[in-house]
Design a protein that fits this description.
Strand order of the largest sheet: 29-28-27-38-37-36-35-43
Protein name: Toxin candidate TRINITY_DN31332_c0_g1_i1.p1
Domain VWFD: 398-580
Radius of gyration: 42 Å
InterPro entries: C-type_lectin-like, C-type_lectin-like/link_sf, C-type_lectin/snaclec_domain, CTDL_fold, EGF, Helical_Vwde, VWF_type-D
Signal peptide: 1-16
Keywords: Signal
Number of strands: 68
Strand content: 25-35%
Number of domains: 8
Length: 1041
């Protein structure tokens, strides 16, 4: 009859919620008091009186119960069942809104809610909650907030006299000892005599049995031991615990019947959210882990003598056989002390490494080291490892290139020749955030590669050798490269390799060998469609449509397939003014699913000591690149390579108009270079590479006959080395015991040692008389400087640091000596020349950089170069350093004059009437003198006097200026000391030990400065009556006049 009545109500309101499947409550004799109804371990008593929320709660408390709490669907249905016969659709439940959160009448928190709709949630005016038998369009027993003064029927709730859930947790507050106490919390009504038999299990083995009894005793305890001593106590860090309980009602009964078990509780560190992950290695997605202690970490008085020294640190390690597969955000971390175990959690990110090895999926572990601490419970504990599986579809990497004049190959392996001249898109990825551009110039009857630009997001790295020299810079100028983007330089002998590694795991190599250039793009295949296609920018480029299908490589920039190479190549041409060689990249908008995932601030390889931490999650195994320099920071500071005229350098590399090499001679030379050389013999062992070597031989013969230049051979060897190494590393079938084939790679050396050495373990051992990494430099020959670039160059110190000079030539070693002849302060000085040697460094095949000393302008520096510090180049480069604010220099005559209405004093420029910073009574008066102040000094030398360290004549050290001394102009040091003393209102000051600036209060200084008598231990400029400084324990004392 009740069911029918409710259904009638449901139909009246248009609802279709059935009540047939609601479980009816029963009395369950012995578990509930008379008048109470049993339901799923709780007893219920219903009142049909209409009262306020607080009146309902007070009534329940009087009967040792609470206003019925609802913390799950089952309880909601049970309470609903008790209210079936009440005359109201709404009834109070034990939930109330207070201070911004829900409170439950049983005093225990819960995350369960059952709001009918968002608008029914509580507010400050509607703080109490009632449930509904029926609320239109909502589930049964849905909640709705209401005024606490409203009146509704209610149900009281108390625990039934039976075992509820057994909860295993740790005891709080923590005891004042070093151990951990675990609690078996028995859910049984308080206030009733009961007996409980508790069994404790550690790792499945019974370790303790205990009888717990009484009206209010509902807990059993298990104490910990030490992690390194399994016998000392009952459990240690790393164990899994469980308790089991039987109960009976009464003071003398024996527990029998069903035994209830607690949850399993692992005591240690748990890894959240899981211990197993699958990842695509180049997805740029991180695994965000949290190491969470399951029990508190706290220093206690009996754990350590001094709790301030307490640390709990763990290490992170990837086994060495997988050390190149993932990196982590940190190699060590400390767990902070806290009574709340979860508050001590430590975050860790694991990033899969994108490499140049194709694979079929690897599974390995990130291992956490044993915790280092003196705490007796945690000492030696080791958290469980995390297992990572790189997905079976390991992101494939392939190589595309356009070399020499140029011979090209797509990423899907189609070889072709294209002789267009201009700027082209070489590669554009599917995500749209990585692009490579290539520039070619006319060389004889063909075109030759000479430059590339690599963009990632809104920054481009340009490597331009079209002038003959290798220039490299960043667009926009001074921009910071995206995190994970690195630029490397490896120059030596006649070869220079520049490499750009992008955050998505691609690598661009630009190789210069003499006048020949090779461009390689190592790219990973990206899933999905081209993200920029909708905006009219198709993916691909001269590298083709990279999808594993060589049959559709030749797609144009407007999305049409073609078999005509001219149509294909021409479509990817771009206006030079719009290229990254001449224009800054536009900002790249966020692209959905573009792989733009938040990444950690740093990544670490933890197997080194100290750990190798930087922002890098790419790893390219490249034996030829072992000695490369990372020049990322150098580029970010702005390119400091001054560019020379294109015409003079390119003139050196014009092709001969007629070849004198026969087909037979070209065939012999190319066959010897490719198949009979040491590197060729090694590369024939690379599976499937012989076909590629035959193509290289055919191209070599063509280029050699066409150009007539034997330098083609060296360029061909470079192509062989680059392609052979890539295939040997990338192709899994070439591996030996899972590692790249050392027996092949060990016989691949730079330039195949140029016929002047032997290749051993990837390094050249040069013959006597030869050196450099490719054995191309003869020790009996001095470097040769390019005579077309040796004219005087000017460097304006007002807008440049003038700290180095780039010089062009050939025959350079990587590290060399620059021989300088310096003539400074040409206008005001004597013009005396001074010889110096400084370090130099090769920055390209045809260019070096020499460091320049600090000079007083204007100064002329002649630069010769040697590889051994002795045998210098026969000619020299010249640079004039000047300051255009007051100096004017003629590049033809090499002479400088001072500009009108300016002064050049102490190496600084001043405009007419400018005041002396140290004496406002002195001014720049060009008509009187352009090289000195026109009035006297603001201070006078009183003399030089002895001093004692134990009782100084002047007691206040204002500043140690010794690191800043200009030994050619000691007056600058004295003036700086004067300036400091004046700022502190001291009239007296002294210089001791060449650059220590001392002073004292005027009264004390005037009385004490000469109390130890005069001293001759002084040093100064020619005019020793004006500017003197004291040596050790001597004050040269000055006074403001």
């Amino acid at each position: 009859m009740i069911t029918l009545l409710v259904l009638a109500g449901l139909c009246a309101f248009g609802s279709s919620h059935p009540l047939d499947d609601v479980n009816m409550l029963s009395t369950h004799a012995g578990k509930c008091e008379p008048g109470w109804t049993y339901g799923h371990k709780y007893c219920y008593s219903t009142s049909q009186q209409f009262v306020t929320w607080q009146q309902a709660q007070d009534t329940c408390v009087q009967s040792k119960s609470v206003l019925a709490v609802v913390k799950n669907d089952q309880q909601g249905n049970d309470v609903l069942e008790t209210q079936k016969t009440s005359g109201s659709f709404a009834y109070w439940i034990g939930v109330k809104y207070n201070n911004g959160q829900l409170e439950f009448t049983d005093g225990k928190p819960s995350t369960y809610t059952n709001w009918a709709k968002d608008k029914n949630k509580p507010t400050d005016q509607k703080r109490c909650v009632h449930a509904h038998k029926l609320l239109f369009g909502s589930p049964l027993a849905s909640w709705k907030a209401a005024s606490c003064d409203g009146k509704h029927p209610f149900t009281c709730q108390k625990r039934a006299l039976e075992l509820g859930d057994i909860l295993l947790t740790y005891k709080t507050p923590l005891p004042n000892n070093a151990g951990i106490t675990m609690v078996c919390d028995i859910d049984y009504p308080i206030g009733y005599e009961a007996n409980f038999d508790v069994e404790w299990y550690v790792n499945g083995a019974l370790v303790k049995t205990e009888r717990v009894k009484g009206k209010d005793v509902r807990e059993s305890y298990l104490k910990s031991g030490h992690s390194w001593d399994t016998n000392e106590n009952e459990f240690k860090a790393g164990d899994t615990l469980q308790c089991k309980v039987k109960a009976c009602f009464g003071s003398t009964c024996t527990p029998q019947g069903t035994q209830e078990s607690s949850n399993d509780y692992y005591v240690g560190m748990k890894v959240e959210p899981a211990n197993y992950f699958e990842l695509d290695e180049c997805s740029q997605k991180t695994i965000k882990l949290k190491l969470v202690p399951t029990v508190p970490i706290r220093c206690t008085n009996d754990a350590l003598t001094n709790c301030n020294d307490f640390e709990t640190e763990y290490g992170v390690l990837v086994p060495v056989q997988h050390d190149s597969r993932v990196v982590v955000s940190d190699c060590t971390a400390d767990f902070m002390q806290n009574e709340d175990a979860a508050a001590s959690a430590v975050d860790l990110e694991v990033v899969p490494v994108c490499d140049n090895v194709n694979g079929n999926g690897d599974e390995f572990q990130v291992i956490f080291g044993k915790i280092t601490t003196t705490h007796p419970f945690w000492k030696g504990y080791q958290p469980e490892p995390v297992t990572i599986k790189l997905t079976d579809k390991n992101t494939e990497i392939k190589q595309c290139y356009c070399n020499d004049d140029p011979h090209c190959k797509t990423l899907d392996g189609i070889a072709y020749d294209y002789h267009g001249v201009g700027t082209y898109v070489m590669y554009r990825n599917n995500r749209g955030n990585n692009e490579v551009q290539i520039k070619t110039y006319r060389c004889g009857g063909a075109s030759c590669t000479c430059a590339t630009a690599v963009r990632y997001d809104g920054v481009a790295v340009v490597m331009d050798a079209c002038s003959g020299a290798m220039n490299y810079f960043v667009r926009p100028n001074g921009a910071t490269l995206p995190k994970g983007m690195h630029v490397q330089r490896n120059c030596g002998g006649h070869n220079c390799r520049m490499m750009v590694i992008t955050p998505n795991g691609n690598k661009v190599t630009f190789n210069k060998n003499g006048r020949w250039h090779q461009l390689y793009v190592d790219a990973h295949m990206e899933p999905g469609k081209c993200k920029t296609e909708a905006a009219g920018k198709y993916c691909g480029g001269l590298c083709g449509k990279f999808n594993g299908n060589s049959g559709d490589d030749f797609y144009t920039s407007y999305g049409q397939k073609t078999s005509n190479l001219q149509t294909f190549g021409n479509s990817w041409r771009i206006n030079d003014g719009d290229s990254y060689f001449n224009k800054d990249p536009a900002p790249v908008p966020d692209i959905p699913d573009g792989g733009n995932h938040p990444l950690p601030e740093k990544t670490c390889k933890c197997y080194t000591n100290p750990p190798d931490c930087e922002y890098n999650f790419n790893d390219f195994y490249d034996p030829l690149n072992a000695g490369a320099e990372d020049i990322t920071e150098e580029l970010e500071k702005g390119n400091n390579v001054r560019r020379r005229s294109v015409s003079t350098l390119l003139a050196t590399y014009k092709r001969q108009t007629r070849s004198t090499i026969s087909h037979q001679e070209a065939t012999t030379l190319c066959d010897n270079a490719i198949f009979k050389s040491d590197v060729g013999k090694a590369c024939k062992a690379v599976k499937g590479f012989t076909t590629e070597m035959n193509k290289m031989k055919a191209n070599c013969i063509f280029d050699l006959k066409t150009s007539g230049e034997h330098s083609v051979i060296a360029s061909t060897v470079d192509l062989l080395i680059e392609g052979c190494q890539f295939e040997a590393i990338a192709e899994p079938s070439n591996r030996v015991n899972g590692k790249p084939p050392i027996q092949i790679l060990g016989n691949i050396c730079e330039g195949d040692c140029n016929g002047h050495g032997q290749c051993h373990n990837g390094k050249c051992t040069c013959d006597t008389g030869f050196t450099s990494q490719d054995c191309s430099i003869s020790l009996t020959e001095a470097p040769t400087l390019d005579k077309d670039t040796l004219g005087l160059t000017l460097c304006d110190k007002s807008n440049s640091t003038c700290e180095s000079e780039t010089i062009f030539g050939s025959g350079f070693l990587k590290d060399l000596t620059c021989h300088l002849t310096v003539e400074e302060n040409i206008i005001a000085g004597s013009g005396k020349k001074e010889s110096k040697t400084v370090s130099g460094h090769q920055t390209g095949v045809l260019q070096i950089k020499c460091q320049l000393p600090a000079v007083i302008t204007p100064a002329q520096i002649e630069i010769a170069v040697s590889n051994d510090g002795i045998l210098k180049s026969t000619n020299s480069a010249k640079v004039m350093i000047y300051n255009s604010q007051c100096q004017q220099c003629d590049v033809k005559t090499g002479k400088c004059i001072l500009k009108a209405n300016t002064c050049n004093i102490g190496g600084e420029c001043y405009n007419a009437d400018a005041k002396n910073p140290l004496n406002d009574k002195q001014k720049c008066k060009p008509n009187d003198s352009q090289t000195s102040w026109t009035e006297g000094s603001p201070f006078e030398l009183l003399g030089c006097f002895k001093d004692k360290k134990s009782d100084r004549a002047l007691s206040k050290l204002l500043k140690n200026l010794r690191p800043f001394i200009n030994w050619k102009n000691i007056s600058l040091t004295i003036k700086e000391c004067a300036k400091i003393a004046q700022a502190k209102n001291y009239k007296y000051f002294a210089i001791q030990y060449f650059g220590e600036c001392w002073s004292d209060d005027d009264v004390d200084a005037s009385k004490n400065y000469k109390k130890y008598g005069p001293s001759t231990e002084t040093w100064g400029n020619k005019d020793k009556t004006k500017y003197l400084v004291g040596k050790s324990h001597t004050n040269c004392v000055y006074k403001y006049t």
